[in-house]
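PROTEIN SPECIFICATION:
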Amino acid sequence: MKEMDVNERRKLKRISLSYYMLVMDAATHKTVGHLVDITPKGFMMDTQFQLPPNNEYRLRIDTTADVADKSFIELTARSKWVATDAVELGLFDIGFEIVNISPHDADIVKRIVQKYGMRDRAES
């Protein structure tokens, strides 16, 4: 029920990704999860770790040459909610709000959405 409230407050429609992008801890470079969907304001990732809500994380997302002029972007994101993945046992879905990102990396996020984003079939 709480997740529905989060979705109702969302101002930008999330875009599911057709390309599986790694999300890593920016300091340790250890894989934290995989990007599932993204908007310029936030994203959802799936992970084996149950990260608590309302914590900030410095994250690194690998990019590709077709969307970026560098191999990764870095950002600070705040975890907003966590839920058990509906499909894959042992995984968690975590929603994040982007709280700090450079203008250049924000432009790369927009290109990721344009290049790899898949609109919901109902919107087509």
Q: What stands out?
A: Residues 1-10, 120-124 have pLDDT under 50 and may be disordered.
